[in-house]
Amino acid sequence: MMNRIFRYSFLLVLVAHGLAVRAQDSTARRLDSLKRATGVADSSGRPQLAIFLPLFLDSAYDATGNYRFDKSFPKYINPGLEFYEGAKLALDSLAKENVRLDVHIYDTRSAGQTLQQMLASPDFQRTGLIIGQVVNGELQQLAAAALRLHVPFINVNFPNDGGITNNPSLVILNSTLRTHCEGIYRFIQRNYPTKPLVCFRRKGAQEDRLKSYFTEIGHTTASVPLTIQYVTLDDNFDGGTVMSYLDSTTQTICIAGSLDEAFGSRLASTLAFLGKTYHTTLIGMPTWDNMDFTKPDFAGEEIVYSTPFYINGADSLVASIQQSFKTKFYSRPSDMVFRGYECVFRFGSLLSLHGPQLQGSIGEKKFKVFDDFNIEPVFLNRQSMTLDYFENKKLYFVRKVDGNMTTVN
C-alpha cells in the first residue's frame, strides 16, 4: 500500500533533479495520483498519517499528465518536494522495520480542492496524526482540525503560534522567537556572565519585540540577570559608530537584535573589520542558518546562533542519505529532506506504537533520528495555567568562524 501511494509522486522527484524522466502514465496510475491528492487510501486498520505539503502538482503537470517545465524546475516547488523526498525515505525505513502506516499525501496547492475540503473529506476523519509544512492561515485550519479529531498536528516549519491558544493538539517543532530569546539569554549567562554585552538593533516593531522578550526574561530569571546595553543603529551605520561601544581590553559579546538579514550581515562584516583591535563574539538570530559566512567580509569573526535543527555530518544515517542522493539524483539533500525523514520516522513510529493514545505521548523521546527534540507544554497565561500548545524547546548553538562550524553548549 505504501509503495502504491507514493508511486506517481516519485516520478516528480526524478524530474526535479534533472534526470529528464518521461513517464507515459497509464490510466490506473493517473487514478492513483488523483486518489492520493484527495486523501483516499484503503481501509486496512493500520494507523493513518496525513501529510500536508505545498507540492504544486497541478501547476507541474498539464491535464494530460505531461510535465510542464521540460528539464527545468521552478524553485517554488522545492520546499514541499524536498520534505516529501525525506518522508519517502523514512517510510521505506519504517517498512523495513515492519512499521505499517496508511499514508495520505495532501497537496495544499491543489487546484481541485481547497484545504477546507480536504479536511472535511471522510477519509481524513480517520487520521491519527497530522504532519504539515504550512504558512499562516493553513496553520490555524490544521490546528483546528487536529483539535476536533483529538490527534497531534506537527507543525514542522512555521516558527509561530499564529495566535492559537487552548489547543493541546498543536506541536510547534520549529521553535518560536521567544524560545530562541530564552535560549540565547541562558547561553550568555552560562558562557559570558561577566563580559560586556551590547545588543545592536535597528528601529522597528519586530526589534522592539525582541528587546521586550530579553527584558522580560531578565526580570524572571532565577540566576543573576544580564546587563544589556541596547544601541539603535541607522541602516547605514559604519565601523566608527560600532567601535564606540566596544572595549579593546576585553571580549565584548554583541547581540544582533534584529531578524533582518541585511542588518545582521552588515553588523557581522563590521565587527570582522574591527577584529584586529576589538575581540568580539556576535550572537545572531535563528534566521541566520542560511547565511553564507564563508565570505572574506566575515573573516575571523566568531558568530554564534541558535537553531532547533542540527544535522551532524559525521552521523552514519546522514552520510547514508547523502550517498543515496548522490547516487540517484547527482545532488546533495537539503535540510528539508532531513526534516522530512526525521519527522515522518520519529512521529510515525510513535503513531504505530501508541495509535489512538498518541496525543498523550507526543513528547516521548523515543525514536530519536537527528535531533534531541524537547517537546514541552506552553502556558501563555500563567494565572489560568491553560495548556495552549506544545513546543520544541531544544536549541542547538552553532559556532561559525571562517566557514568552520561546530556546536557549543
How would you describe the shape?
A: globular
Specify the CATH homologous superfamily of the largest domain: Response regulator
State the domain count: 2
Order of strands across the widest beta sheet? 2-1-3-4-5-12-11
* CATH top level class name of the largest domain: Alpha Beta
Strand-residue proportion: 15-25%
- Class inferred from helices and paired strands: alpha/beta
CATH architecture of the largest domain: 3-Layer(aba) Sandwich
Helix content: 25-40%
Question: What is the CATH fold-level name of the largest domain?
Answer: Rossmann fold
Topology:
Layout: H1 2-16, H2 27-37, E1 48-53, H3 57-60, H4 78-96, E2 102-107, H5 115-120, E3 129-132, H6 138-149, E4 153-155, E5 170-172, H7 177-191, E6 197-201, H8 205-220, E7 229-232, H9 239-243, E8 252-256, H10 261-273, E9 280-283, E10 302-307, H11 316-329, H12 335-354, E11 375-378, E12 389-392, E13 396-401, E14 404-408
Parallel strand pairs: 1-2, 1-3, 3-4, 4-5, 5-12, 6-7, 6-8, 8-9, 9-10
Antiparallel strand pairs: 10-13, 11-12, 13-14
